Amino acid sequence: MIYSNRIFEYTFLSKKCSSQYAKSLYLCTFKIYPLVETLINTYRKKIEQTDNEFVRYLMPNVNWDNRLFAVIGARGTGKTTLLLQYIKQNLDVSQAFYMSLDDLYFSTNRLVDVVRKLWQEGVTHFFIDEVHKYPYDTWAQELKNIYDSYPQAKVAFSGSSILNIYKGNADLSRRAISYELFGLSFREFLEFEGIKKIATISLDDLLKNHVSIASEIIRDLQILPLFRKYLQSGYFPYYKEDLPTYRLRLLNTVNAVLETDLPAVEKVEFVTIQKLKRLLAVISGMTPFTPNMSQLGIQVEIQRSNLLKSLELLERSRLLGLLRNPSKNLQYLSKPAKIFLDNPNLAYSLGENNTNIGNLRETFFFNQLRVIGKVEDATQGDFIVNDKYVFEVGGSGKKFTQIADLPDSYLAIDDAEMGFGSKIPLWMFGLLY
């Protein structure tokens, strides 16, 4: 790093330095006030360490030209990596800047002041991570001020899935668009493992052409063992860092969500967090189940009115998945029809010896389909998707008995590499995003 009287200057490699990047690498120079040297070092290191080999499904679905937008998601889904990959792939590092609001720097400095200094040095694209950890209760207001003060700037910010970007004193509803990054789909898992790269398949295409699609995929793969591996440990990208300790890391993530992320977003007391832990523990041994709200409230010592809010918080935290009745039913405003753990990895980690294959099948189906459509409880069958398609989920011996007389009805069958007619292998529903 080179110091001058007014600015810091550092250099590192960027493909945007020259159109001849394929032939040679050039050094880019970035200048900034010494006040933010610590943020510069973090930015530089993160860009250098960012790998572009595998990119999440959300990357092409985001309108990166929006002036202000949010990427929210559960801990460990890869929000930070997504932002850094976009910078590295598409922007000149001297025009973009990444910063995380949980950096100690922000314990004594304000976001708006940093943005002002960066803007003066020519930065036009701001990538602001972990906004829910900003030590001041003003992140939304400061983002609004940045949006209004710098009409030529582009601002992307990330935060916990618990975050409600439209809540609070600052009105971001007319300014910010929100995207959610979910965990790895089964399709992404196969690519992340370096096994096979498969294009995303639409639900309609899957329902019509699943036989030909499956035959192409399984030609050189034993798909079912890979599917079992994914269900146990393939949902969060960080499983690759240390697979033997993945279950422990996942449990630590759950605790961090409840003890750190939740209090940063919602005003919850310690006793409430302990009750949420108890609620999650009780549900983990029973999912999926149709809840009796009165009994459940007594079991975890939470009043019914607060129990509904507690379930909603755990859903927003992406620890639970709440399957609701169709919205025309007034019960949609009250208790859920079924409660699931959010994803199969959580079922293995929290459920331990209570893990049931039938529960895992439904958890996987609900988890994958909710990303691409509306999934609700069906009066016949297990799920109704987009108010049209009815699905029954089960093993390879599952029959059409419950849904035989329904149009647009299908079986999602486990333990099968290929299906036929309206019987579709369960693993194929992991190819939708």
Descriptive key words:
433 residues; single chain; disordered N terminus; five-stranded parallel β-sheet; alpha/beta
Biggest sheet character = 5 strands, parallel
Strand order of the largest sheet: 5-6-7-4-8
**Overall geometric form:** globular
Helical/strand content category:
alpha/beta
Rg, rounded, reads 23 Å
Counting H and I runs of at least 4 residues, what is the number of helices? 13
Order of helices and strands: EEEHEHEHEHEEHHHHHHHEEHHEEEEE
Beta-sheet strand percentage?
Answer: 15-25%
Seen as an oligomer or otherwise, the chain set is single chain
Number of strands: 15
In terms of topology, how is this protein built?
Elements: E1 2-3, E2 8-13, E3 27-32, H1 37-49, E4 68-73, H2 79-90, E5 96-100, H3 111-120, E6 125-129, H4 139-149, E7 154-160, E8 177-181, H5 186-192, H6 203-217, H7 223-233, H8 246-265, H9 270-284, H10 293-300, H11 304-316, E9 320-323, E10 338-341, H12 344-351, H13 357-369, E11 375-377, E12 383-385, E13 389-394, E14 409-413, E15 423-425
Parallel strand pairs: 4-7, 4-8, 5-6, 6-7, 13-14, 14-15
Antiparallel strand pairs: 1-2, 2-3, 9-10, 11-12, 12-13
Helix pairs in contact: 7-12, 8-12
